[in-house]
Specification:
The chain is of the alpha+beta class. It has two domains: about 50 residues; about 80 residues, no CATH class. Helices cover about 30% and strands about 15% of the residues. The strands form two sheets. It has a three-stranded antiparallel beta sheet with strand order 2-1-3. A two-stranded parallel sheet has the order 4-5. β4, α3 and β5 form a beta-alpha-beta unit. The longest helix has 17 residues.
């Protein structure tokens, strides 16, 4: 699983998870990757440092900001619109997301938009199988209905 820092032509930064650099290239060339903020399909990879697993585990920490900055009104409006769209056009399948996504992908269930929860391992397995699933961007709170 590769996590790339991406940016659209409008300068919006976001990340994408891909099975490989080649998978990113194929999806980008096919126009399958879009900015989650403005839907621009002119997307580029930004430079990023690779993560190296040394085997040593450090305690999990949560970043803390001394004085959090409120989201810009435009971003807040866009996030609210995205939240409304997701809630209106997807079915909440909760922790059954990997199972239901596979059944839809393999034609065992009718195609439809779904949302739910997956572990990082489950997300990686879905990508390896070629099943597209998109994590919701930070700032989208579905009132505990999905991650």
């Amino acid at each position: 699983m590769k996590v790339f820092r991406l940016s659209c032509a409008q300068g919006h930064g976001f990340e994408g998870w891909f099975a490989s650099a080649e998978a990113f290239d194929r999806q980008c060339e096919a126009g399958d990757i879009a900015c989650p903020v403005c839907e621009d399909r002119e997307v580029i990879r930004l430079p990023s440092a690779p993560y190296v697993n040394t085997g040593a585990r450090e305690p999990a920490t949560v970043p803390v900001a001394a004085s959090p900055q409120p989201a810009s009104p435009a971003l807040a409006t866009a996030l609210a619109a995205l939240k409304a769209h997701v809630l209106a056009h997807t079915e909440d399948v909760g922790r059954r997301f990997p199972e239901v996504a596979r059944r839809i992908h393999y034609g065992e269930e009718d195609a439809r938009g779904i949302r739910g929860r997956v572990t990082p391992q489950e997300a990686a397995e879905l990508v390896e199988e070629g099943i597209e699933a998109v994590p919701l961007p930070p700032g989208i709170d579905l009132d505990g209905k999905a991650h």
